[in-house]
Amino acid sequence: MSGVPDAEYCAPGGVSGWIEFKYISSAKSMVVGLRPAQVSWIDRRSRIGGRTFIAIQRKDELYLYSGIGVKELKRHGLESQLGLLYHGKGKWDWEAIRTLLLLS
Questions:
Q1: How far apart are CA 53 and CA 68, in angstroms?
Q2: Phi-psi region for residue 38, left (φ > 0), alpha (ψ -120 to 50) or beta?
Q3: Largest separation between any pair of C-alpha atoms in the chain
Q4: CA–CA dist 37, 3 (Å, integer)
Q5: Number of Cβ within a 10 Å radius of residue 51
Q6: pLDDT per residue as tens digits for the range 60-74
Q7: Distances in whole angstroms, Cα of residue 67 to Cα of each of 18, 87, 91
Q8: Could you report the per-residue pLDDT of 13-35, keeping only the tens digit for each?
Q9: CA-CA-CA-CA torsion for 88, 61, 15, 102, nearest 10 degrees?
């Protein structure tokens, strides 16, 4: 189906959500390559209360955005202030990421 995110997750207790994964190869680029169908799907799902996220890796950085801000993310890229940033692959805070995905 067009626009459906890359992964669905489901945790104990029935907590579920969707994640769209993006990779930016240029260390200087701020542009996130979201297609219109992806923006539309994520926005619709988020507005009815579904958990949706966009995870973006650029070099050793991980940006994690809630789907609520997908339109701003498309317009402003990584300059959008709605995301969380983790520096250094070995330093990504996996417990904080897990908490965000399950409790947001």
A1: 8
A2: alpha
A3: 40
A4: 4
A5: 20
A6: 889 999 999 999 999
A7: 9, 21, 24
A8: 999 999 999 999 998 889 999 99
A9: 60
Give the residue from 39, 92, 73 showing the smallest Cα distance to 100.
Answer: 92
Outline where 8-88 has alpha helix (H). 36-47, 70-76
Supply φ then ψ for residue 49, to 5 degrees.
100, 5
Phi and psi at 88, nearest 5°, equal 75, 115
Q: Three-class SS of residue 102? A: helix
Pairing of strands 7-11, 61-66: unpaired
Give the long-range contacts of residues 77-80, CB within 8 A, separation 24 or more. 77/29, 77/30, 77/31, 77/32, 78/24, 78/30, 78/31, 78/32, 79/30
